[in-house]
Amino acid sequence: MTWRGWFRLCLALCGIAALAAVEPAYTQQPSATDADRQILVMLKMAPPHFRPGGSYGGNYGDTTAVAARRRLAAGIARRNGLTLIDGWPMPLIGVDCYVMRVPDGMALDAAIAQVSKEPGVAWSQPLQVYQARGSPGGTVLNDPLFRAEPAAASWRLADLHRIATGRGISVAIIDSKIDVAHPDLAGQFVADLDFVANPDSNRRATAAEAHGTGVAGIVAAKAGNGIGIAGIAPDARMMALRACWQTAAGPTLCNSLSLARALQYAIEHKAEVVNLSLAGPADPLLARLVAIAVARNISVVAAFDPSLPQGGFPACLPGVIAVADESLQSLPARVYGAPGRDVPTTQPGGKWYLVNGSSYAVAHVSGLIALVRQSDGRAAKVALTRLSGGAIDACATLLRTSPSCDCSCAIGRRVAGGRR
Known about the structure:
The chain is α/β, with parallel strands linked by helices. Helices cover 30% and strands 21% of the residues. The protein has helices at residues 3-20, 63-79, 108-115, 150-154, 157-160, 210-220, 256-268, 284-295, 358-376, 394-399, 407-417, and strands at 38-44, 83-90, 95-101, 121-126, 129-132, 135-136, 170-175, 189-194, 237-242, 244-246, 252-255, 273-276, 278-279, 299-303, 321-325, 335-338, 343-347, 351-356. The strands form four sheets. It has a seven-stranded parallel β-sheet with strand order 8-9-7-12-14-15-16, sandwiched between helices. Helix 6 packs parallel to helix 9 (358-376) and helix 7 runs parallel beside helix 8. The chain is elongated, with a radius of gyration of 22 Å. The two termini are 36 Å apart. 48% of the residues are buried. The model is unreliable at 6-28, 48-61, 138-143 and 199-203 (pLDDT under 50).
């Protein structure tokens, strides 16, 4: 029996006992329906408010200017029969972003068209909802799980780690709350911020959530610590940026504003890779921020969903690296396949589960890009090598193999040359 077969058998035998011990914890967060009556209104930011390199964390400029902008937004809401809910500065694109509630009986499209005519409004749009593209698919097994990781064999991960481990590369995980104290993740983060519940970016979530914790483990769980798994880039440093929330019904959801807040932070704090294991409808606010990230040579990796138009947003955007579970059939030429089935990874409470979905394929590619950026130089353009079926050839991506020098040959040459 193969290692993975043995692993699945153990899970099946201990499944009843393990499931009783891993009841998920949920935090009270906005549901998808909360966004149904809300819109985003972008107010043009006066040039003096834009300070390159500044830290905007929800408070920028003097208190008088902040209050004046808030009064302007409140006046727009009042004149149009809307309720002002929240606000957040977006200096990267020169706007203040406000959330306003549309009253029952008023069509959202009509409210957006009406408020867009107000002086000082750059544009208005719906508050979109996004869903993470992965789910737990098994139970806990507290043994070293490296050999059960799909990438251990198909990507020759141990060999790749002889060349690069992601050292010094920053990866922003924009997702649900990550268990940063997990024994396989503790010490792997340079930031742990919550952009969901409150404009104050220093407010932390009270409970860790499954999806973000699983994604983070695949990207950069510790290697060689004798427990759990090894991340694809175990020496990368992650930003835990909570922009999504786990719902009691199961899905992990995000919205336009929470994602925009987290994206702006990642860009301003010089993340080199941005992991977006999610998909949803097109959004002009997010599109502008993603375009800035791509222009700054930040690798933005997102989940491709074949059930959505063009594979979903933001995966459809120019410059975004679209990734799907490699087991999906007929991947488009622009989409890269990576492991997304029966992947062991970290989960809240110091546990490890098997997970499934394109979310986790995205995490594999984010980790691989961190390896490439360390190996080839941070400023290098990342070029992924795709096999004929769509799956990524990780060894060729990192080592630039050729017919005359396969993976083993290329690894030998690099190790002998002392490059790491």
